[in-house]
């Protein structure tokens, strides 16, 4: 059986590819100095991402020393992430619900949409800077990056695939044993290798190149005056939970969405009543790319989100005291805040071809 | 000098080292054997038994983790192998339906007398948070909650006419941090001896009646289904009564050791 992911290039495609390369590099050469720089950039992008801690950021939680990133390991993780073979009926990949153009959120889906057209109950968050998260998921149900994929794999409305069957399928695949051998030395495929390869991909999804980041790094021109006003407003009203620079303190809180939450949230994991309706404070990076918002995707726009904090906060036992009575922001400050929130997008991250579908690139 | 001939120079050293290793004959490790019982009777998978609460139960699955064994020396100190977070050594997944899982060797211990062994029933909190594991800890064994990441320490599944669930199912999954229990099993009436010429075997009973019984015997009519840590917490102490030492053998060690 031929794999979908690595189609054999026909002669026609090779010619096409050669012509394309010629055009690209020809174009680059004509563009003299800038061209060389772009060529260097291009080649730099081709490499496997190395994991480095952006300046001013804390140390990550995920420890790559047990799972060192290699070219073959990262490439395998990337292939697995994009491969629908990981689901029971071969229709759903991780990437089905985590799309790069949406910073790996499920664009325009309030709740995720999985196998057999079934809806889940939560919004798929964007995937980036996961190596810094002490737990994953809205309720913190996954407490280790390597183990997180076991959730969607087993979930009957997501990929509905039991692990032993998946391993059997990968072992029988025409391609995977060789790719595991390249990544781990021998062709054996076990759950640890599968999960570690995926973690080499998900763990290296680092987004730290927004205009806000450039401003923090000292480039005062990176934000307009209005956006800087918005940043001050953000620091006054929002940053106690959406802590800089990751824009989350990774605690579990209620921001006053419901008096009687339908989704028990964090209490599912802790079993404590006071955690009912509490959810992980999400990072706000790439916000403009990841609508809709909140654990159930109830808000379509950032305007609605900010209006919620201004006038929609509902009291409950779980509500965070900081938000009791809502946040006082006048209309002018609101507009500046909204302008600031849009500076958190990282276009370089969503266009980084190292994270793109490896099948589509060929 | 070419690398190959240089490594030839090491040859005598290797030979000497190998000879030294042979000179100290290896000590037999303590073997653990577990029999699954219900009071005095053997537990048979799929065959109805009567629980201490007087209900009928047919067991489909009984699986649990034993981990991190430590031996108590006669002088009161502990003998424990170092933990390696990358290795599943010291973790045993026992499955009453799979005889090959009901006996195992404890980690090597120096010669001497030991008066008991301690186990964690379940997977300790540190390992529970240490990422993708292998061997007994491979999540593919199904002893893992994927929706609330963490190992299932103990699993009892079966059918009981007393259960109000569909198909009279009984499902007890004890998992999550805080539900692990540590048990100390004294080697009685005499200590276990580790020496070159003896193969010691500690025979344990895992008694389902002891687990289900106690002061307030578990009733499947009231509690047929436990799949969350908070529901399992009240049952976790029962893990402490599951295991006991039934008897101990000291046999001559298998093959005679030559210096």
Write structural notes for this entry:
The complex is a heterodimer of chains A (362) and B (259). Chain A has helices at 11-30, 32-46, 71-81, 94-97, 150-154, 163-172, 176-184, 191-202, 211-216, 225-237, 267-270, 302-312, 331-341, 347-350, 358-361; strands spanning 252-253, 279-280. Chain A has 362 residues and is mostly helical. Chain A has three domains: 2-45; 64-206, Cytochrome Bc1 Complex, Chain D, domain 2 (Orthogonal Bundle); 211-348, Cytochrome Bc1 Complex, Chain D, domain 2 (Orthogonal Bundle), CATH 1.10.760.10. Chain A has a two-stranded antiparallel ribbon. In chain A, α1 (11-30) packs across α2, α3 (71-81) runs antiparallel to α7 (176-184) and α3 (71-81) crosses α8. Chain A is globular and about 60 Å long. The model of chain A is unreliable at 1-32 (pLDDT under 50). By secondary structure, chain B is mainly β. Chain B has one domain (28-252). Chain B is 14% helix and 39% strand. Chain B contains five helices and 16 strands. Chain B has helices at residues 3-9, 11-23, 125-128, 208-212, 229-236, and strands at residues 31-38, 41-42, 48-50, 56-73, 78-79, 91-95, 103-105, 112-121, 144-145, 150-159, 169-175, 181-186, 192-194, 198-207, 225-226, 243-252. In chain B, strands 3, 4, 5, 6, 8, 9, 10, 11, 12, 13 and 15 form an eleven-stranded mixed beta sheet that branches. In chain B, strands 1, 2, 7, 14 and 16 form a five-stranded mixed beta sheet that branches. In chain B, a hairpin with a 5-residue loop joins β3 (48-50) and β4. Chain B is globular and about 60 Å long. Residues 1-23 and 255-259 of chain B have low confidence and may be disordered.
